[in-house]
Model the fold of this input.
Amino acid sequence: MKIYEFGAAHERNFVMFQCAAEPWWVFKASAEAMAADHHVYLVIADGHDEAGTTFMSLEKNVQDAAEGLRQRGVAHIDAMYGVSMGGASVIRFLATQDIPVDRAIIDAGITPYPYPRPICRLIALWDWATIMLVTKSMRMMKLAAPPARWTPEGEDPEEHYRRIFDFEKHHFTPRTIYNVFWSTNNYAMPDPVPRVNTRIEYWYGEEEERARRQDLAYTRRAYPQAVPRMFKGLAHAELVLMFPERFRREVTRFLREE
Done:
C-alpha cells in the first residue's frame, strides 16, 4: 500500500480510497483538485501501482491505511472518500474505529454478499475471468469503457488508453485481480456494526441505481445516518474519474452542510 500526499500545507485533511482495477494516477486530478484547500492522502492499495506488490484483502488494506496515516501524524480525519472498492474500504474503516472520522462519502461502495460461500466463489471467478479478458485486450477495454466517454478532458484518447492498457498488462497480476473481487464482495464486518459519530453520504450514478440498491440498503442498516445522493446521467465512478472540479464542488458542498 502507498499513500500519495497533495496540499500538505493545509490544516484540514481529506483521505481518499481508490477503486479496483485502475492505476493510481487516474485519481490524481481529483486529488489535486481537493488539494486546493485540503491536505489530501490518496491511499492506493497493493497491486495498483508500480511497486510490484500483490493485493491480499480489503481488511489488510484498511489496516495498512490506518497505520500509514498514524505514521504521518494523522490522529483525526476531517473527511474521507472512497469509490467502489474504496467505498467498501470506507465502510470497513468506519467500523474499525481506528481513527475518528468527521464526515465520509461512500461513492458506490460495495458491501458483503449475503449469498452462500460457493455462490460467492463462482461470482468471484466470473469477475476474475471478465477483468482478465478486458485488461489483456485493448479492443475489449474500449468496448467496456468507450474512449469518447472515458477519456479525461484535455487528454488524447489513444495515449490515455495505451497508458492504462500498458499499466494493467504489466502490473495487475491474476492473483491481485482475484483477491480484489473476492475480498471486496466478501470482507468481514463486525456484528453488530458499532455506532459512529460520522456524517455520511452514499453516492451513486443514475446509471448504476439498480446495481447499488442492495449496497445502499446494507450501508443504511450499518450506518442509519447515511444519506443517499444520486447523480443524474453518471455511471459508476464517473464523477471522480472524469470531472475533478465537479467532484471538488460536490465534496465541498457536503463538507459545508450543517
Notes: The two ends are 34 Å apart (CA to CA). The chain has a mean pLDDT of 96. Strands lie at 2-6, 13-17, 39-44, 77-83, 101-107, 199-205, 227-231. The first strand starts at residue 2 and ends at 6.
